[in-house]
Specification:
single chain, elongated, about 25% strand
Length: about 400
């Protein structure tokens, strides 16, 4: 009994060593130095980070379908999984002579793969998108969401056993779908798609392109990108940027939580904010509503009109209206010009002109003359309802 135990463990050690050498000596990666592929940036980042090593013989071409074993190797690399268990011994189609022997053994020990049957793994088979999402959901240990899969146009194609996992990946922003709103759950996953999907987990970056509501329950993420309108993120803490792209133009986006920076590039968007925003940067027109606290608002495009809609406004933003807005430093920053807000609690409409000081330093002028003064028109309506017109020649109502 004791000799058998020693032999078994000695065999594991030898196999681990041989497989480790084989894995990291049999693989090269195809990269795109000419920006010719949509996933070129992610592929090169993963190559530079050493995450695209060990996935079999030959080149891992971006547009090729990725095998189950190759996907497992990428997951192991990303998560830093190294422990090998005994479960590998029961799978008849995983030979010790194959490069993926250790890869599968590690995946089984990590607990995110279970095989296609009790004794078959199908390591060389192509992995489907929904199968990959099941693995991603398992390693993410995310909160369960059984309904988010319905946000996809082709939700009817999602297998019953994959619905929870697909919902988790959509709710987490790991999967965004194509421009038609489809996630193609039954299609084979390409290498580029695999890297893109895993990279969002790896870098804690989230992308949303499917209409719906997404509750983060206080989760902290680095960056968020919004690629469509009618998207509502709630209870999220973003330490980097939340970027609303042009694809959300003429629509509605609602963001709830704490944000280091929200950057809007969408034109004529109804933006509802709930929570705290350190910096709100507007590169296109926006109509704001909600209850939020903002430290700084920057309007970078001189043609932009910023409108905060009060309770009597005409904007229809998720059936909510502005309740409270706080600007901590009592300034709106427009092209680096500090505009002081005054008397914002008046009930009647007023129009006020204020002097904005612009230093010669801002004009790249090294002279020591006194600062110039420039007229900027601010129209003030009811409490916390402010329209800022960035053009100097603005007229009042």
């Amino acid at each position: 009994m004791e000799n058998g135990f020693i032999y078994k463990n000695l065999k594991k050690i030898i196999l681990f060593t041989l497989c480790y050498i084989a894995i990291f000596s049999m693989f090269s990666i195809s990269v795109y130095a000419d920006n010719s592929h949509w996933a070129e940036k992610q592929m090169n980042q993963w190559k530079n980070d050493g995450l695209l090593v060990g996935a079999g013989e030959g080149e891992l071409e971006a547009d090729n379908s990725i095998t189950r074993a190759q996907f497992m190797q990428l997951v192991n690399n990303m998560m830093g999984y190294r422990r090998v268990g005994d479960d590998i011994l029961k799978f008849k189609d995983v030979s010790v002579d194959e490069w993926y022997y250790q890869t599968v053994a590690i995946a089984l020990e990590a607990g995110y793969i279970r095989g296609v049957s009790d004794d078959m793994m199908n390591p060389n088979g192509k992995i489907t998108r929904e199968q990959a999402m099941v693995i991603l959901a398992r390693i993410s240990k995310s909160r369960e969401n059984s309904r988010a899969y319905q946000n996809a146009k082709d939700s009817g194609d999602v297998s019953n056993w994959a619905k929870v996992a697909v919902s988790i990946c959509i709710n987490e922003g790991f999967i965004s779908g194509n421009t038609n709103g489809d996630i193609m759950p039954l299609a084979n996953l390409s290498v580029a798609e695999a890297v893109t999907m895993l990279n969002r987990k790896y870098r804690n970056q989230r992308v949303f392109a499917l209409e719906g509501e997404y509750d983060f329950q206080g989760e902290i993420v680095n960056n968020v990108m919004i690629l469509a309108d009618n998207i509502y993120l709630e209870n999220v803490n973003v330490t980097g940027e939340a970027v609303i792209t042009e694809a959300a133009s003429n629509g509605i986006v609602a963001l709830g939580g704490n944000f280091a920076k929200i950057k809007n590039n969408a034109v004529d968007i109804d933006l509802m904010l709930l929570g705290e925003v350190h910096e709100l940067e507007l590169n296109a027109g926006a109509k704001l509503a909600g209850e939020f606290k903002v430290n700084q608002i920057k309007v970078l495009n001189e043609a932009v009109k910023l409108e905060l809609v009060d309770a009597k406004g005409n904007a229809k933003i998720l059936d909510n209206n502005i309740k409270k807005v706080e600007i901590n430093d009592e300034k709106v920053i427009i092209n680096d010009l500090a505009i002081k807000l005054e008397d914002t609690d008046r009930e009647e409409k007023t129009t006020k002109k204020t002097k904005v000081t612009k230093s010669k330093k801002d004009n790249n002028d090294d002279s020591e003359n006194d600062d110039d003064e420039e007229d900027v028109t601010i129209k003030q309506t009811t409490a916390a309802a402010i329209t800022v017109v960035t053009t100097k020649e603005a007229t009042t109502e």
